[in-house]
Amino acid sequence: MSGPVLSIRDLTVKVPIDGETRTLIDAVSFDLARGEILGLVGESGSGKSMICRALVKLLPSPAIAITGGTVLLDGKDLATLSEDAMRAVRGAEIGMIFQNPTSHLDPVMRIGDQIAEGIRYHQGFDPREARAAAVEILGQVGFPDPARQYDNYPHEFSGGMRQRAMIAVALSCNPKILIADEPTTALDVTIQAQILRLLMDLRDKRGLSIILITHDLGIVAQTCDSIAVLRNGQLLEHGPKRRVLAEPQHAYTVSLLKSHPSMPEESGGTPLTPAALPIALQPLLEIDDLVVRFPAPGLGIFKKGKTEIAAVNGVSLRIMPGETVGIVGESGSGKSTLARAILGLTPLTSGHVSFAGSDLAQQRRQTLAKLRTEAAMVFQDPYNALNPRLTIGDMLAEVLKVQGNTPAARIPERVGELLDLVELDRAFATRRPRSLSGGQCQRAGIARALAVDPKLIIADECVAALDVTIQAQIIDLFRDLKTRMNLTLLFIAHDLAIVRNLCDRVVVMYRGEIVEEGRCDAVFANPRHAYTAALIGAIPDIDPDKPLPRGDLPPRSEPKAAPVVRGQPLISMQ
Amino acid sequence: MHRYRFVLSRPLQFLPVLFGISIITFILVRLIPGDPARVLLGTRSTPTAIARIRAQYGLDEPLWLQYFYFLENLGKGEMGKSILYKIDVLKLIATRIEPTLTLVLTSVALSILIAVPMAAIAARNNGRLADHVVRIVSTLGIGFPPFWLALMLIILFSVRLGVFPVSGYGETLGDKLAHLVLPSLTIALSLSAVLTRSLRAAMIVALKSDLATAARARGMPESIVFWRHVLPNSLVPTVNLLAVNIGWLIGGTVVVETVFAIPGMGQLLVRAIFSRDYMVVQGVAMVFACATVLVNFLADIVTVSLDPRVRL
Questions:
Q1: What are the φ/ψ torsions at residue B145 (nearest 5 degrees)?
Q2: What is the interface pTM, i.e. ipTM, of the complex?
Q3: For residue B311, which residues of chain A lie inside 8 Å, CB to CB?
Q4: Threshold 0.80, pTM exceeds
Q5: How many domains is chain B partitioned into structurally?
Q6: What confidence tens digit (pLDDT) does each residue in A5-60 have?
Q7: DSSP assignment, residue A90?
Q8: Do A106 and B221 make contact, defined as CB atoms within 8 angstroms?
Q9: Domain match, A185 and A167 both
C-alpha cells in the first residue's frame, strides 16, 4: 500500500442559519488507504452523510458550503475544484451508493441503461460497447442473467437486487473510491449479509477503497478495517477496527458499543418469565389456523379470483395476558399482515382470531368494538402515523374523547400523565410531530397507544427507523411499561437482537407461516429450523472474530417447513 | 409486452360506458323545453303541420320507442336526419368535425410547446426571477377569459399587424392553418398556463429527488440530469391533467369558434340547441363523449409508456 488514496485535512462545512453560522462538519481529518474499508459511524445528524456529500461536493442545499480544509485525491484538491472538473471525479473516481436504492434509481429507466449512461458519458463508449460493459458489471454484482436483466426496470427487482443494481451503477466507471451511505439499512438481515459480502469481494477484486457509512457497529466490526466515530460534526475517534472496538478512547464510543443490541446488558434486561405473571388460564389472544389471502395484483377484470397470494397461511398462536411475544421474519414474511388481521384491519380469509374470548370472524362487531377499546398499535414510521396538523396534546385528547372513559374536565390532566408515562416533557403537548425528533415522535406514538388504556399493544417495526441509542431507549421504555402496566405486547421486528432483548417468546415467520416458536433464549441459543439459524447467523456480530455468514437462505423444501406456501412474493429474486 | 395488455381489454369496457352515454344524451335532449316541430315551422305552424312533422321525425312515438329507433340507427351507423339542415346527422358532423379536430390538435401541440420550456425554465431557476415571471404569466393565462384574449389577439395580429386573418376558415391546408393560428393561440395561452403550473411543481420535486442526486453523483451534467431523468419522472401527472383538459376542450371550443367564426362542431352544437334539432344535438353529444373516452384511453397508454410501474 503506497500512500493514501484520499486524504482529508481539516474539512469544515458551514451553513448560515438566521444570521448565525452553524458548523456542520468541524475540522475533520482522516486518510483512506487503497483497498481500505473505513467505517464512518455516528447517529443521524452526526454529519457522517454530510462528509461524504462534501467529498463529491453534492451538498443538499446551495447555502451549505465547504469553508475550509483540503480533500486530496491523487494530488487534486477536490475542495477547490470547479464544478466542471468535479463532474469528471463523480462517478469516474468516486462512486456512491445510497441507503434507499428504490428512490435513488430512476424508476422509468431500464436498469442497464442507468449503468451504461455513466459509461458512455465518462468513457466515451458507443451504445453497443456501453451495453456490453454494463452487462458485464451486472454479472459481477450478482445478477444471474445480466443480458436479459439489462432491460428490466428497478421495480421488477427485490430490494437486495436493487441495491446490487445501485452498486453496479456506482462501479460503472471504475472508481477508485466507493462511498456507501447506509447501504443495507433498508434491507433484510440475510440480504444485508449478501450485500456486505459483495462489497468486500469487490474490494478484494478491484482494490477499491470504501467509505461505509453506518449506524450499526456490527456491520463495522464485520466488514471494516478502520473506524471513524462522528458526533455533532466532530471526529471523536479514528483508528484500526480492533483497537477501537476493544479499547474505545472516547466515552461516546463506549456508549455506542453498549447500546449495540447484540450485547444485552444482563442486569437490566432479564425477560420476565410467564410463570412470574398472574396465573391466567385464558389466553388474551388466540389465533387458530389463520389464513389471509390477497388477490394478486395486475390482473384484468376478466380473470377475477384466479390468483391469490397467501400473506398469512395457516398461522396458530396463543398469547397469554402479560406476555411479550416477538414476531420476526423478513419483509414479505407476513408479520405485518398478521398484526393487521389481529386488529381487524384486514379481512380474514379463513381461520379464527379471538381476543379476550370473543371471535373476530363470528362476532365481528362486538370483537372489533372490544379491540378498539382494549388493543392499540404503534407504527413503524412515527411521522407518517401521526396527524401533522394536530398537536401531540390534541391527538391524545382525541383518543381520550373517542374512548369516552375520561371525563372531559380530566382530559388535560390525563394527557399530562400519558406524556409522563412515555417520559416526554409535558410541554410537548403543544407541539406538532414535525418539530419532534424521531425518538420523541415515537414516544408520542406510544402515548397514543397507551391513551386507549389497552390490554394489548401491537408494535409493528416501531424502532426500525430510529438510531441505535434511541432504539435502546424505546426498548427500555417498553420494558418499563409492560411491567408497570401489565401490558401484553406483540412486538414485530426484523431485528432479531432487539426481540431477543425484550421478549419472553419469539415466533419466526417465513413466507406466511410460523416455522419456529419458543422461548427467546432457547430459540436463539439453539434454533431448530434452518431459516431461523440463517436469520440469526446473518446478524453482523460486534465481535470481529465471528465471521460474517453468507446470508444464504435455506432451500425452499426444508423438512419442517413442509407445507409449500401458495403464491409467490410480489418480487422474487429470480 | 404484457403491461400493454389493457389496450386490448379496455375497449370492451367502453361498451357499457357508451351505452350509458347514449341513454343520458337521449333523455337530456328531450328534457329541453320546446317543440322542434314548432321551431322548424316557425310562423307557419298550424296544428296539422306540426302533427305531420312530428309523425315524419317519429316524435309522436313513445319515448322508449324513440330511444329504440335511436339505438337501431346507431347500430347501422346512422344518427337520424337533421331537422334543420335536412341531411344525415353523421354527414353533417363529418363536414364540421375537421375544423374542430384541427383546432384542438394545434392548440394542444402549441400548449405543450409553450408549457414544457416554460416549466423547465421556472423549475431550474426555482425562486429566481425567471421562475417568478413564469408564475405570474401562467397565473395571468389562467385568469384572462378566452373571449377577451381572442379579441386582443385579433386587434394586435389581424387589425394592427395584419399577419393573420381575422376570422373564418380556409380552403387549402396552408390557408386553414393560417386561420387557426390565433384561435389555437387563444386556447393554448390558458391551457399551457395550467400545464406549466403542474409540470413546474413536479419538476421542482424531481430536481430535488434522490434519483437526481444519484445521477449527479455518477457525474452526469445538469442538462442530462434534467432532460433524461427529471423530465420523464415529472410528466405523468401533467399528462393526466392534459387529458382532462382536452376532454373539456372538445366540448369547449364553442366560444373560440364563435369569436373566430370557425365552422366547427361547437358552432353546430349551439345552433342545434337553439333550433331544438334533437338529432344533431344527440349526434354531437355522442361524438364529444366518445372523443373524451378516447382521449382518456390515449392518456392511459401514454402514462403506461412513460412509467413502467403503472399497471392498468
A1: -70, 145
A2: 0.79
A3: 297-298
A4: no
A5: 2
A6: 899 999 999 888 878 888 888 889 999 999 899 999 887 778 888 888 888 888 88
A7: B
A8: no
A9: no
